[in-house]
Amino acid sequence: MGIKTSVSMRNQINNYSSATYLKGTTRQTHPNLSQENTRVLSFLNSAILLASGAIPTLLNANGANTDAALAAASIPAVNRVNVTYDANTSTTELGFQIASNGAYTGAYPEGTVPDYSNEVVIIVDGWNQITTGWQWYENGKFKKEGWLEDKGKWYYFRGEWMQVDWQQIDYKREKDEKKKKYYFYFRPDINTKTMRQTRGDMVTGWFEIEYEGSLQWFYFRGDGTMVASDWVHDEEDWYYMRSTGPMLKSNWKQGKDNEWYYLKSDGKMAKNEEIVVDGVTYIAEANGVCTEKGKSNAGGLSFSIVQNLIPISQAHRPGTKMTPTTLTIHSTANINSSAKNERDWLVNPSNTRSASWHLAVDEKEAVMAIPLNEVAWHAGPANSSSFSIEICESGNRTKTLENAIELTAYYLKQYGWNTSALRTHNDWTGKNCPRILIDSTQRKQTHETWEWFVEEVDKLL
């Protein structure tokens, strides 16, 4: 910001031309009757205005590069002086107003400097703080309207003043055919000691603002426009912004796909977890779609995925969160067990083995036993970064494999992955699993190899 000061206009100079009183060290505007006298800024030594009694006189100019002159009609009195210092050229210019007719003389063209109500102000190129607001001076005039970029930050002006707080502005985003009205927010930070604005730059990203009697989160795009009635994807989480801008919390939102999504108390969309809303338990899938526990959700598949999560226990579901980066395929090695049977075995008291899985699929349905963002004990080093699908070996093998291929493609699409994210249990530990795809003695059809399985999945992506 620029340095601003004022010349004292009282009789404290008393006709002594050697006395040059200025307030030149405080970054603010002072009234013309101020009694604070401090040292003269070095760059103003050649441009001091002396106001003695009723007749103003320019003293000690010392060849300063100014066109300043006093209008000697009747006995005028100076009621405002504007001094502009250009740090690049080290030159100072004066402009002042004659009270008798309000005319400007000196370095400023008529009408380019606003009236500051009898204050004496030094105007510098760039930022100038007048009373509690900010103005921008450049190329001999003040910024009147529109946008200003300074040091990588954006500001907005109306009527020569920098705007703060909420502003509705006509703006054309890249997707728009013409300008529309968008809301922007400009930081209104106040220095509580001086009660003057200290910021004013445009906000982007998350910003907490008081709204409806409490602090609420809003999201502003990279161009500053406020997001409303739309989703925000931030890192790994999704949020929904209400029509008036605040983040939606502890509430349901129906998507354009007619599916229902739940926004938790922190605004994050529920996913890969079990939630309780109004006493009802729901299962939120990896894509956020919520289904009441115990009910099926086809999810666009030709069969149902039944969410039936097992309780948390160290042996089978430790409850440890993880972010999956791959999908591991297994087969159950049990020719008599369905997906439902496999899930029931996980909670059978006689099952003391520390082994588990996320999904199992058979010829009729798929069952989810553990959320996909939690650890399951299924493939040694894969447990902390991969979720699993168990392919049942009972029933109609051809139909079961068709369902497994469809289920695998479904989840790859949910995570935005391709088949390079697929792994076998054998890849992680060397175990003969999924044996119905990698062991020729366990296949029912000779073409049912791992390579064939991956190719079939890829056709559905």
Report on the structure:
The model is unreliable at 1-81 and 94-120 (pLDDT under 50). A seven-stranded mixed β-sheet has the order 28-29-32-31-33-30-34, with helices on both faces. The protein has a four-stranded mixed β-sheet with strand order 7-6-5-8, with no helix packed on it. It has a three-stranded antiparallel β-sheet with strand order 9-10-11, with no helix packed on it. The chain has five helices and 34 strands. Strand 6 (91-98) and strand 7 form a beta hairpin. The relative contact order is 0.06. The longest helix is centred in the last third of the chain and has 19 residues, at 397-415. With 461 residues, it is mainly β. The two termini are 56 Å apart.
The main sheet comes to: 7 strands, mixed
Mean pLDDT: 76
Strand content: 25-35%
Estimate the global geometry from the Cα principal axes: elongated
Radius of gyration, in angstroms, nearest whole number: 37 Å
Structural class: mainly beta
Question: What's the number of extended β-strand segments?
Answer: 34
The low-pLDDT segments are 1-81, 94-120
Helix count, per DSSP?
5
Placed side by side, the strands forming the largest sheet appear as 28-29-32-31-33-30-34
Terminal CA distance reads 56 Å
Residues in helices, as a percent range: under 10%
